[in-house]
Amino acid sequence: MTTTTTTTTTTTSTGPAPSGRLFSQGTNVHYGDFRDDIMHNGYAVIKGAVPRDRALKYADQIYDWLEGFNLGFKRDDPSTIHKDHLPDINEKGMCLGYAVSHESFTWAVRQEPEVIKTFEKVYDTEDLIVSFDSVNIGFPSRKDIEPNTPWPHQDQDPEKPGFRCLQGLVNLLPNGPKDGGLIVCKGAHLLSEEFHEVFKDEERIWSWTKEWYGFTKAGQEWLKKRGCEWIKVEAEPGDLLLWDSRTPHYNLSSETSQPRFCVYTCFMPVADATEEQLRVKKMAFEETKMTTHWPNAMHVVDLPVFRNGEADPYQRSKPREPVQLSERAFKLTGIPYLEQMAA
Ligand SMILES: [Fe+2]
């Protein structure tokens, strides 16, 4: 796989930004932009990566989608925020069914030029693939589902250290200090290897994938003693939030009347995916399945969706309309690269 070196527009007082993917030259370099935040803090906010009006339009489209199930949900009537009137959304705001990963609004956010450009800068290549991940639809004051308990974790296998994946989400509604959403442990990504050396014999919190590590109370205490602080990230509609997969994080529910909507956007170089993974990814695209945040389709999500303990009759395996992509976005599915390999 060839690597295209993109020219970054960012220059610093010490010269042009370093080449290569983020962290490839250690952390003692200077970019003069959001990449410095990711390097030092483990997360960053790209203000207005999506123009505010477009972000709010995507939020409206999510409302249209929710109302379109015809289960009685009405965006202007908070009394209709109830599982009987909504598609299945868990206590963390995750919607894992209904081919939502391939809905028009989800793909529209993934195709946003500044979002793509941001990840091109991080990996110093245009040859990227994007995850077919979910959306988060967090409504406040939900009493009809379980409470959202904190589950501080990192989305990376402790046995596979180093910078491997940058996770992201585009925030679509005003998201202030009490409006729920992403909370990160600042700077802990740089302590990840040391942490796992100390905690390598501890009993692990169960996980369905090796690429998830849950922090126990003792682990959280260790981070605290090392001076790591938990930061609730605040965002406006259209802001892109990014975090290193090693950064401990979780999400909070809104404590106000403000819902929280976002679309997860995660990109990685196609060179990081195997041919077999690209084949799985192609299948996931053609069958409009979800892949979690891993763009290399490490996992394909095909879980049953329930309504009152029975298979949800409103579950669907296809989005409302067939996926339509620009040429740029089609490359992000990895399919053109797979075809090149076969040629
Ligand atoms: Fe996570």
Q: What would you say this structure looks like, in words?
A:
This protein has 343 residues and is α+β, with helices and mostly antiparallel strands. The chain has one domain (29-342): Jelly Rolls. It is 24% helix and 16% strand. The chain contains nine helices and 17 strands. The chain has helices spanning 34-41, 52-67, 104-110, 113-123, 192-198, 217-225, 275-286, 327-331, 335-342; strands spanning 11-12, 15-16, 43-46, 94-95, 128-130, 135-138, 153-154, 166-171, 181-185, 213-214, 230-232, 240-244, 249-252, 260-264, 267-269, 306-307, 310-311. A six-stranded antiparallel beta sheet has the order 3-12-8-14-6-4. Strands 11-9-13 form a three-stranded antiparallel beta sheet, with no helix packed on it. α2 packs antiparallel against α3. The radius of gyration is 20 Å and the shape is globular. Fe (ii) ion is lined by residues 153, 155, 249. Pfam families: PhyH.
List keywords for this structure.
343 residues; alpha+beta; Jelly Rolls; six-stranded antiparallel beta sheet; 9 helices; 17 strands; 24% helix; disordered N terminus; binds fe (ii) ion; Phytanoyl-CoA dioxygenase
